[in-house]
Amino acid sequence: MGIWMHAKEAADRVREEVAAEAAALRAEGIVPKVAVLLVGGDPASAYYAESKRKIAARLGVEYELRALPRTATEEQAIAVVAAWSRDPAVHGIMVELPLPSHLSASKVSAAIDPLKDVDGVTPANKLAVVAGEPGLYPATPQSCIRLLHAYGHSPEGKHVALVGRGQTVGLPLFHMLQREQATVTVCHSRTADLRRHVAAADIVIAAVGRAGLLTKDMFRSGSVVVDAGINETPDGGIAGDVAPDAIETAAAVSPVPGGVGTLTTALLFANAMKAIRLQRQAAKGEKRE
Ligand code: NAP
């Protein structure tokens, strides 16, 4: 029987650091502010946007949510983001995905000032992740790695099976794991024998979006399993990509909810604080972090 890698403690620590930094900034007369664009009112996106508002309030971060109707044009969405990019009172910008299908997420994201890009979705920050350059890295891959470290499972020298190569989680995580000195096998929908790769790994990270894809019989007794998947269940709850009974075979498993997602939300606000530091350094013409 393994242990659950709950994220609450690590997330609490991140939130404490953010709240302290936000208070220090306010004392200097800087009110940290993040702005979020929601187009089309997708219920799950609206829910995430509102839950971030509550967290922002607790951390002393101002929060603006701009909702555009489903019929909004790409030009309208880009105009909102571009105005925030120019506004010195806005320090962090997020665009809730998915956007309605007639809008290009990459075109709208490209209008975000890279120094305000707390989701790490602009071309400049995507490149920074690949090249290991300073920048704002996406929060979910950061969360997976932090959770491993929090439980003493450094990826260094380990064989990691990364299941999923999506733009949001798997792809950036692949690059970040390289720099953690892991040996990474990337699995995807065309992988011929997923079971073999999962069974061979010391660490398995799931970022797919299919509830229960990884079952308890796929893991060996020493496996450490991080589940980044978020899947809606018929009863309105959420489930990960890993079947919960995997805890019976693996050494450690991160729960859903209460794992990667919990830490991700905290790290988004840590990214907002980093964004402010980067903006201040840029204003002074200093080298970036
Ligand atoms: P995505 O872009 O849809 O990527 C999914 C990946 O899974 C793709 O690489 C796909 O392979 C692979 N895949 C699909 N079916 C598979 C199968 N049967 N076996 C192996 N691989 C398979 O998704 P994403 O945006 O990266 O998100 C991944 C998951 O993370 C989702 O559940 C999402 O909700 C969740 N997520 C969580 C957080 C958080 O804070 N916890 C944040 C963002 C996203 P191909 O490349 O071959 O298509």
What features would you describe in this structure?
The protein has 289 residues and is α/β, with parallel strands linked by helices. It folds into 2 domains: 12-112, Rossmann fold (3-Layer(aba) Sandwich), CATH 3.40.50.10860; 139-262, 3-Layer(aba) Sandwich (Rossmann fold). Helices cover 41% and strands 15% of the residues. The protein has a 6-stranded parallel beta sheet, with helices on both faces. Helix 6 packs across helix 7 and helix 6 (139-150) packs across helix 9 (260-284). The chain is globular, with a radius of gyration of 19 Å. The mean pLDDT is 96. The protein binds NADP nicotinamide-adenine-dinucleotide phosphate (NAP).
What key phrases describe this protein's structure?
alpha/beta; Rossmann fold; single chain; 15% strand; six-stranded parallel β-sheet; 289 residues; 2 domains; binds NADP nicotinamide-adenine-dinucleotide phosphate; 11 strands; 41% helix; three-stranded parallel β-sheet
Offer a quick outline of the entry.
This protein is α/β, with parallel strands linked by helices. Helices cover 41% and strands 15% of the residues.
Which helices and strands, and how do they pair?
Blueprint: E1 3-4, H1 8-27, E2 33-39, H2 43-59, E3 62-68, H3 74-86, E4 92-95, H4 105-109, H5 123-131, H6 139-150, E5 159-163, H7 170-179, E6 183-187, H8 194-200, E7 203-206, E8 224-227, E9 231-232, E10 238-239, E11 252-253, H9 260-284
Parallel strand pairs: 1-11, 2-3, 2-4, 5-6, 5-7, 7-8, 8-11
Antiparallel strand pairs: 9-10
Helix pairs in contact: 1-9, 6-7, 6-9
